[in-house]
Amino acid sequence: MRETEVIERVRAMASAGPRHRELIRGIGDDCAIFRPESGWDLVFTTDFVLEGRHFTLETHGAEDVGYKALARSLSDLAAMGSEPVFCLVSLAVPNKLADQWTRRFYEGLLTLASAYQVTLAGGDLARFDHVIADVICCGRVPENQALTRDRAKAGDRIFVTGTLGESAAGLRTGQGKAWKRHLRPSPRVEAGQALRNMGVVAAMDLSDGLALDLRRMCDESNVSAELMDSLPIARGATLEDALYGGEDYELLFAASEQMKLPRAIANVPITEIGTFAYRTDVPVSFRGEPLEAAGFDHFA
Amino acid sequence: MRETEVIERVRAMASAGPRHRELIRGIGDDCAIFRPESGWDLVFTTDFVLEGRHFTLETHGAEDVGYKALARSLSDLAAMGSEPVFCLVSLAVPNKLADQWTRRFYEGLLTLASAYQVTLAGGDLARFDHVIADVICCGRVPENQALTRDRAKAGDRIFVTGTLGESAAGLRTGQGKAWKRHLRPSPRVEAGQALRNMGVVAAMDLSDGLALDLRRMCDESNVSAELMDSLPIARGATLEDALYGGEDYELLFAASEQMKLPRAIANVPITEIGTFAYRTDVPVSFRGEPLEAAGFDHFA
Fold first, then answer.
1. Measuring CA to CA, how many Å separate A230 from each of A226, A239, A242?
2. H/E element, A72
3. What is the ipTM of this complex?
4. Quick check: A41 and B47 CB within 8 A?
5. Residue A138's domain is classified under what CATH number?
6. pLDDT tens sequence across B164-212
7. Domain with A163 in it: what CATH number?
8. CB contact A241 to B (< 8 Å)
9. CB-based contact (8 Å) between A119 and chain B?
């Protein structure tokens, strides 16, 4: 297939998908055009999905790769407490995948896009020896209300949505519910917005494992964290999966002592896992020991 | 180097660069935060730069790759007549390039970013066997004034900025001014905004060669185009370079018969190269023959 044909097909698929009212021009020009309503802050994120690094063609279907590529970026939007608006998709594929594989990639991506009313507004297309996807997402949040990772305070309780370690367990075992969750993670979009409405101000998503991501939140907020002895580990997952496993895409957040939180949001449980304290030499401690900031380091 | 160290260095480099007043949070959280002023449309584009496809490590310096990665996206912003605001940069590199090469990549990118007051607001970082960069740019343009490629009309004259074929000639010869232009193309940001202020409404950038890009403009505008016999071919370039060579990053635009245009904008010459007409079976003709829509096809 020629580039023009592929672009035309993506354009047709995108135009059959959701169209946000602020997105006044999508695929087909040098740029997408967005007319923002006033009173909103816009949030932007971009995430790679790389063959051999985040997936392989043998183990991951094209639909799954497309689904997950968008899910990674939507998880970042969720962590800001924002409402997803549109995405741009840069995709490079080998020639032999230009036709069917590419179509199925966009089908998987648009399945998730439709669930959250995300407009596919543009992107780039190239040929390469390996599959590379980079998904850029824009969300919006009422002015000055974005959740950030630098506002956890000493005395705040630490919470997570859902369960931990399931994606790592799925990657390890390659089967069952855990493998399905690894293939098609659920970005906590509803939870992020609900937490913001409840008054939560500090949050981030768990993409590289609790130990490493909690450390990042502690560093940005200049606090230390003490974890509880027991954590909401997923069925089939080990403690190590829960602490150091990547790609859970749950939300990690802080809530003051007084704040009342529900036991679940949109059927996703909310679990207290520890307490923030004034910063000490030990950024994160667990069962009386310093917890190493290990996890999925892209350069390690 | 570990991922955290690389990110911290990029964050320091970015914070020493330009900071747009609407960009209220840059690198360091799940998303960048942008608070748009009212009365502006936002435009978005994303472009890959892939090792072995757009450059090689042997022939292109790290600074040149960073510079060009941003230039490609700025050229799209220029084609919309917009003012650049911020960029996100996704970069994947092999381990051995994580330190010095990556630093120089960002230095080259920030050199161009500083020239146009573009804030480096975020991105993604990953390890991969090959260098991959994806640069996302946001620009702004007064509401409803973005230049688009679908508004050329029969009777309009066709113009280009600058000269054609120089980048292809540079790629072919690997030396002199043409090679420098291939390495560090100049996005026509000032010209795009000036043309919009003069009342031009239809424009696009020349990234895949005049023959292919003009064909795209004709298709989107539902017109045909007749080129003049002589074109502003760059010194050292052939007619084929000018018609089919990629990466000139000049602007192609339409202007009504009445519209007065200067001979140059910001020292870049403006040259009339043809006329648009009602759509016929021949979308683009040159010297009495149909001109094939050939050029840099990423899938060919």
1. 12, 9, 11
2. helix A62-79
3. 0.94
4. no
5. 3.30.1330.10
6. 999 999 999 999 999 999 999 999 999 999 999 999 999 999 999 999 9
7. 3.90.650.10
8. no
9. no
